[in-house]
Amino acid sequence: MRRLLYILIFLATLGILAAFAIVGLNLRGEVKLPEPPTAFEPTPAMVERGRYLALAGNCAGCHTTRGGAPYAGGVGIETPFGTVFSSNLTPDPNAGIGRWNSDHFWRALHNGRSKDGRLLYPAFPYPNFTRVTREDADAIFAYLRTLPASPVPNLPHELRFPYDMQPALAVWRALSFKPGTFEPDPAKPAEWNRGAYLVEGLGHCIACHGTRNVLGATQEKLGLSGGLIAVQNWYAPSLTSRREASVADWNPHDVVELLKTGRSERGTVMGPMADVVYGSTQHLQEADLLAMASYLKELPSTSAAVAPTTSPTRDPRVMERGARIFDQRCAYCHGDQGQGAAGAYPPLAGNRAVQMSTPVNLIQIVRHGGFLPTTPGNPRPYGMPPFRIVLDDTDVAAVLTYIRGSWGNDAPPVTPRDMMR
Q: CA–CA separation, 84 vs 159, rounded Å?
C-alpha cells in the first residue's frame, strides 16, 4: 500500500512539473501588455502600407468568404484534426477586433494569443508571422481599422477531442512554437534579406512548401523542401530541388513574371498556388518580387535533385491504353508529342511537374481541371477541363503513366494505389 502511495506521489509530482514546464514554454518571449496601451496614431501612409502588407500576407484569402464582407472571417480551414474557422478582422466592436488595440494585435501575430490571452490555433500562421516587425504589424492593424465594420459572428471551431481543448494546444505550442524575430543576414545584400523576410514571414511559404510532422507542425530544419497540403491533397513541390520547383537556374525576371501573372517561359501555376498569385503576389511591387526571387534562387539544393538511377518498368498494355486516351482527350491542346502551345497550353515533354516522384497534382488536375489565375498580365488564362466525368481512375492512371513515360519523360507509372490515395 505504501509503495503504491509513493508511486502515485511520484507520478503526481511529474505531472505538476510537466504542467509548469508547458506553461513556462508557452510564456517564453512574452511580456505583459503595457498599461496604458502603446500610443497609436496611424497616418494615411501607414494605412496604405498596411493594405499592401495585408496583400503580401494574403490575409483576405483566409478571412473572406466567397461573396462575403471583406475580412469578416468564416472561412473553414480543414485540417487533419478538424475544421478551424477564420475570425472576423473588421473593426466591429462585438464580432470583430473593434475593441483591440495595437498591442493586442501585435501579440496575436508575435505570440499567437487573442485579446483575452486565449491561445490561437496555428491554422493562423503565427509560427511565421512571429517574424513580422512591430512596425509592419501596426501598419496592418491600422489598415484593418479602416475597413467597414461587419457584424458577422465568429463561428466555433469544429475540432475533434482532444484538439478542441486549450491544454492540448498548449502542449503543441510547447513542442512546436517559439516566438522569434527576423534576423537579417549581414553577409547578404539588402535585396536578399528583404526576400527572406517576405518568404519566411508574411508570405508564410513554408505553410505549404514545408514538411509537417505527425503533430502538424512544419519542420523548420527541412525548410521549403516540399510537402503534401493536408486535406486538400495537393503537393506543394520542393523549392530546393531542381527536379521539382527550384528556381536556382531561372532568370530572376522569369520568377517575377510567374509570381506576377501566374505564367512565365519556365512554368505556370495551378491549384492552391494559383490562389496565392491571384490574391497576393500579383499585387506586390516588382522590387519585392525581385527580392523574393533573389532569396528563392539561393536556397540550398537538396538531395531530391538527384535523378533516379534506374528506369521504371511500364506495362505495355497500360501505355497503349494511355496513348489512345491521350490522342482522344489531350493531344488537341498539348500536341501529339507533348510539345504544348506557346502562351496557351504548357508542354508535357520535359515538364518538371509531370515528372515529379509524386503524381498527386497531376491526378488532381486531370480529375478536377483548373485555370491559371486571372491577372493583368494574363487576363484570359487558358484552362484545363475536368475529366472525372468521362475518365475513370483506371483511365486517369493509364494516360498519366503514358505521359510520364513518353517524349523523353521517365517518371514512375501511376498506380491504382496512387489513385486511391
A: 7
Partner residues linked to 159 by β-bridges: 82
Q: Give the pLDDT confidence of 134-181 residue by residue, as tens digits.
A: 999 999 999 999 999 999 999 999 999 999 999 999 998 988 899 999
Question: Is 287 within a domain?
Answer: yes
Least Cα distance to 245 among 220, 270, 221 occurs for: 270
Domain assignment present for 127:
yes
Q: What is the DSSP letter of 223?
A: -
DSSP letters along 12-60, please? Answer: HHHHHHHHHHHHHHHHTT--PPPSSPPP----HHHHHHHHHHHHHTTHH
CB 287 within 8 Å of CB 197:
no
Is 311 inside a domain boundary?
Answer: no
Which amino acid would we find at residue 37?
P
Domain span at 211: 190-305
**CA-CA distance, 341 to 263, in Å (whole number)?**
13
Residue 193 — φ and ψ, nearest 5°?
A: -65, -40
CA 383 – CA 334 distance, rounded (Å): 12
pTM, 2 dp: 0.90
SS3 label, residue 103: helix
326 and 349 belong to one structural domain: yes
Q: Among 272, 305, 338, identify where a domain stops.
A: 305
CA dihedral sign, ordered 343, 349, 350, 354: positive
Residue that is last in its domain, among 266, 283, 305: 305
Residues 292 and 334 both lie in one domain? no
Question: Has residue 194 been placed in a domain?
Answer: yes
Asked whether 210 and 219 are in contact (CB, 8 A), the reply is yes
Distances (CA, A) of 382 to 181, 336, 342: 41, 19, 11
330 and 281 share one domain: no
Number of domains in the chain: 3
